[in-house]
Design a protein that fits this description.
alpha+beta, Thrombin, subunit H, Pdz3 Domain, 4 domains, 7-stranded antiparallel β-sheet
Amino acid sequence: MKQNIKLFVVALLGGFISLIIYNQYVVQIQNEGKKQITTHFPVHTNNTKLIAAESSIDFTVAAERTVNAVVHVTNTSVGVQQDPIAQLFGKGFGREYKKVGTGSGVLISPDGYIITNNHVIDNATDLEIVLNDKKRYKAELIGADESSDIALLKIDADDLPYVTFGNSDITKIGEWVLAVGNPYNLTSTVTAGIISAKGRDLEGNGQIESYIQTDAAVNPGNSGGALVNTRGELIGINTAISSQTGSFIGYSFAVPSNIAKRVVEDLMENGIVKKAVLGVSIAFKDGIDGVYISEVSENTGASEAGLKAGDVIINVNNVAIHQFADLVGQLKAKRPGDLVTVKVDREGVTKTMNVKLAEIDDMITEAFGIQFGGLSDRHKNKLDIDYGLVIHKIKNIDLQKIGIKPGYVVLSINNIKIKNLSDVEKIKSKLDSDDDIYKLIVVNLAGERETFSRGW
């Protein structure tokens, strides 16, 4: 009996030792093999950001929230076709004809306010809106701003679907977006893409300088339509395409929603858009990440806050400023009198200041030996012009010799229209010296237009 018990205990102990050896070596070898396979062929991630990104690529919600709020805009204008034969014999003044253009718009309120591009409704004598359900309405133009290419329309209707504004400042490169519009008269077309760049300055456009660039397909007729994120929030108004043919070939551009929102709020309240500026002159310098201040205007929020020539603006309201377009985008989304937090690099030391923005018509800037100032609407109406800057002082001897005087209004420099002080700064940054000015168009003290070309 005792012998049997000993045999049982020995067998049990042997089995236990075998189990330990199996777990210690065999299972470990198997697990190492599994680890090796897992390392080379990942099949799952615990990265919550990647999981969230993957699950968010669903465009159906954004499309459903947007498609019924994007409208078709028809612009009818009247033109005159001249008859050369009749004119030859002094008969007739030409034949009137109707010209029809189309585009898109976005409902931004349930009571019928619509945002679109200024170029969609420019020169219109009649505006018609067609909703996605085919209902038609006559539209009233509330106001338009050529510099931002934004216009505000109103139709007489209630309980309409509409899109809410998103924050274009927090959009990121690589983020999925949808472009919704009416290209080629195809109603309610949705295309998808990603944000491929921000703060884009299109060559030849000195106004926005802060477009959102996407690769979502946008074609003629999409202008004024919505650019939305995957939540269906409006982050831009589709405005332009980069194309040699007039059709989409890879990139499209949208006015950021923060700029568009500020413009329509001004149009609703005042009928005009007031331009806000820091009160500084800037210069373009190579190798600088930010915007270099070359001059600070006296008696402005910038001078009172302590900004100085030589400072490099690197951040405005917690948005990084890498280039002039970034700064323009922030200022266009603000109003005169607003306070902005500005961070500058001053000889390697970061300083933070609160700056009260000034109104551009109250500002004076100096360039080319000329001290420029803004024009009041009353002054423009008196001279029958809608753009230009007045000369306050002139130090440029060459220009004095040809008769340019204080009180003259400068309309263009080197064939570039001067609509605001930002235009002067942009031209200034591209010229190596004052001698590079080869053409000036001005309005003299008698209210007459004069053109001066190099050779004077």
